Amino acid sequence: MSTSRRAGREAGPPAARPVPAPPKPESGPITQAIPVVGPSGNRHEAGAGGGEGERSQPSRKRGRRRRRGNRLPDRAIVFVGPMAAGKTSLGKRVARELGIPFVDSDALFVQAHGPIVDFFAAHGEEEFRRIEAEVIAEELAKPGARIFALGGGAVLSERTRALLSEHPVVLLMTTQEAVLRTANISRRPLLRDDPEAWGRILAERKPLYEAVADVTYRTDRATKDQLAVRVTQWVRTQGRGAGSGTSGGRQGGGRSNRQGGARAGGARAGGARQGRTSTRKTKENPSE
Ligand SMILES: Nc1ncnc2c1ncn2[C@@H]1O[C@H](COP(=O)(O)OP(=O)(O)O)[C@@H](O)[C@H]1O
Ligand SMILES: O=C(O)C1=C[C@@H](OP(=O)(O)O)[C@@H](O)[C@H](O)C1
Ligand SMILES: [Mg+2]
């Protein structure tokens, strides 16, 4: 296992990753209706449904299947990445697939403080970052499997990066071209007046994303449906055999990661889990 290279490479069979906490009971599927906070701040049901025209409750059959299939950690699985990479939209889908809640840090912020664009205008970015880091720390402290999508700049906080060393972290990466094609720029204060700032901001933050990530998926090279399947599969490996060496092996086939031209970068954390305050994860980077 490489100990120095970072995320952003092809996902393949990840290596086992030691988990520091004592083995926790694996969380089973959550089959009851689950409150979800979307980016708009609205609560809706996610366990199934997620607000995109699907059922509000998983069927009993699906629930049984999930109970057998899920091996989820008893903690938040965190999505990071640049603005408009798809953290919110893909995070919702993955949560729905897994039958677990979805939480979005921007939505938590909006619930308490109103629209981010307005907050930036009134109080500035620094104050936004301060509150964002608090909101994230509070959420990460809660137990229970769920997908937690962070705002793109959340990794700027050292405190947040340190906390992420205790969580499975998925990095979603894309390109400026794809973002300018699909994203709603007007809701993102840092892009509103200068959409091309996206690339400059990414250049500054890329090392931070890579330092916290366990696996990377490119969202500009696959459909949301394809990615939802792939990321869901990866998440399912994260609760297995803490320290048993089986945690990543099942993904191994990496089959889905290499299909359809959608490249999932892969890396696995190892070292970071040995130290609670480490902000850097040790990864294996299978070749591309
Ligand atoms: N393969 C994909 N995965 C995720 N999002 C995608 C994909 N293709 C296009 N999109 C679009 O990109 C945008 C990403 O927005 P969002 O999920 O809010 O990103 P983020 O939360 O990372 O800022 C959405 O409009 C989404 O529909
Ligand atoms: O990258 C950033 O600095 C930001 C990203 C946004 O979230 P998304 O990444 O979900 O767009 C939101 O937190 C805010 O506009 C600032
Ligand atoms: Mg988002």
TrEMBL record:
Its cofactor is Mg(2+). One of its GO terms (molecular function) is ATP binding. Residues 15-26 have a biased composition (Pro residues). Residues 58-70 have a biased composition (Basic residues). Residues 240-255, 262-273 have a biased composition (Gly residues). GO terms for cellular component: cytosol. Binds 1 Mg(2+) ion per subunit. Pathway: Metabolic intermediate biosynthesis; chorismate biosynthesis; chorismate from D-erythrose 4-phosphate and phosphoenolpyruvate: step 5/7. Substrate binds at residues 106, 129, 152, 205. It is an enzyme of class 2 (transferase). PANTHER family: SHIKIMATE KINASE, SHIKIMATE KINASE 1, CHLOROPLASTIC. Monomer. This is Shikimate kinase. It comes from Leucobacter chromiisoli.
